[in-house]
Amino acid sequence: MTARLLRTTLALLFLGLFGVLDATTISCRNEEGEPVDWFTFYKLPKRQEKESGETGLGYLYLDSTTRSWRRSKQLMNTTDSVLGRTLQQLYEAYASKSNNTAYLIYNDGIPKSVSYSRKYGHTKGLLLWNRVQGFWLIHSIPRFPPTPEEGYDYPPTGRRNGQNGICITFKYNQYKAIDSQLLIYNPNVYSCSIPAIFHQELIHMPQLCTRSSSSEIPGLHLATFQSAQGQNFLHFAKSDSFLDDIFAAWMAQQLKTHLLTETWQRKRQELPSNCSLPYHVYNVKAIKLSGQSYFSSYQDHAKWCISLKGAKNRWTCIGDLNRSPYQAFRSGGFICTRNRYIYQAFERLVLYYENCN
User: Fold this and answer.
1) What pLDDT is attached to residue 24?
2) Does residue 6 sit within a domain?
3) What distance in Å separates the CA atoms of residue 282 and residue 356, rounded to the nearest whole number?
4) pLDDT below 50 — which residues of the chain?
5) Is 4 inside any structural domain?
6) Could you tell me whether strands 350-354 and 281-288 are parallel, antiparallel, or unpaired per DSSP bridges?
7) Which one of 3, 28, 103, 239 has the minimum C-beta count within 10 Å?
8) Alpha carbon distance 304, 37 (integer Å)
9) Is 74 within 8 Å of 82 (Cβ atoms)?
10) One Pfam annotation, family name (predicted)?
11) What does residue 80 show for φ and ψ, rounded to 5 degrees?
């Protein structure tokens, strides 16, 4: 009886400890604050929301527990939005001054700045992690997010155009590979805290945090990642020494698929569709929503691409760079997945694309 009581007590203690650990596990979060393996969002341009009285803050949402886009009932500037819920973990870690949690925030357009840095990569993102797991948020929103001490907000400059991003939950054993990819990114880090317990395994992020890196940067590198729940991802990272269009010169040929690319097609700064190599790259020109609603790529600051419909390999990639002559001189990258629900969601957004001349 005593032995049974001891086993029962130990089991309850274990379950209680597991519950505490599970409650504090860092993860991408949905709008209810529940952990998810990944999510992707598409913030809609301001012009699409006149009928609802919104101001460029509505968005589409898809995560690892769902199968298609849904229009969120939340606005992107609220703490109940998917980004607000996920970043709440950053603010809690900052407030606790924990020596077991690290974060790194980067953006070529930093909050409250009127200019954009071309010295660093054309990259925007945030990482938060401990020695169990964390998340990597990759997005296209300039001047976002505010530093942790300021709390959550969404910048007015991110309202006019479309924006997108992806959040992926990773176990800690994936962070060494992420560390190497970020070296190639050369990100403009404007807020970070990486305690000493991580420095032995993660070499580059602490140096990027203090802007003291002297490591030799490869021209490009391809890495494979696995999310916390086993979803496979492929990550392309290029430095500013690889002077070419990342889509046509590398990604399409490596993935062995024709690509439909949606990036910010600013007038007189776009690259035309490219059919000069075995695998072609076509510019998406318009994004369709429900009914007759659509918007032009000129109004879309999002950066993503998918395999051409009917391709054997159906990839979706979300990242940092535009198809522009100037972007060949910038570092950045894309994270790609063959998840069919992500592919179907983005494929349904394509209204039409530009063929090659």
Assistant:
1) 65
2) no
3) 7
4) 1, 4-23, 52
5) no
6) antiparallel
7) 3
8) 20
9) yes
10) DNase_II
11) -85, -5
133 is written with which tokens?
A: 């797991």
The answer to whether 278 and 301 are in contact (CB under 8 A) is no
Distance (Å, whole) CA 229 – CA 6: 34
For residue 32, give its domain range.
25-354
- Quick one: which of 226, 350, 344 has its CA closest to 287? 350
Closest CA to 266 of 305, 322, 224: 322
CA distance 142 to 116: 9
Does residue 9 form part of some domain? no
Residue 19 lies in a domain: no
Residue 352 CB neighbour total at 10 angstroms: 12
**Does the annotation count 301 as an active-site position?**
yes
Strand 259-262 versus strand 163-171 pairing type: unpaired
Kind and range of the H or E run holding 346: helix 340-347
For the chain, the farthest-separated pair of C-alpha atoms sits apart, in whole angstroms, at 83
How far is residue 292's CA from residue 147's CA, in Å, rounded to a whole number?
39
> Taking a C-beta distance cutoff of 8 angstroms, is the pair 318, 166 a contact?
yes
Please state the separation of Cα 249 from the chain's center in Å: 22
Closest among 204, 90, 188 to 148, alpha carbons compared? 90
Between CA 181 and CA 185 the distance in angstroms is 7
Q: Out of 139, 258, 280, 301, which one is annotated catalytic?
A: 301
Going by C-alpha positions, the residue among 138, 25, 31 that lies closest to residue 89 is 25
Nearest CA-CA partner of 187 in 167, 213, 165: 213
Q: What total of structural domains would you count in the chain?
A: 1
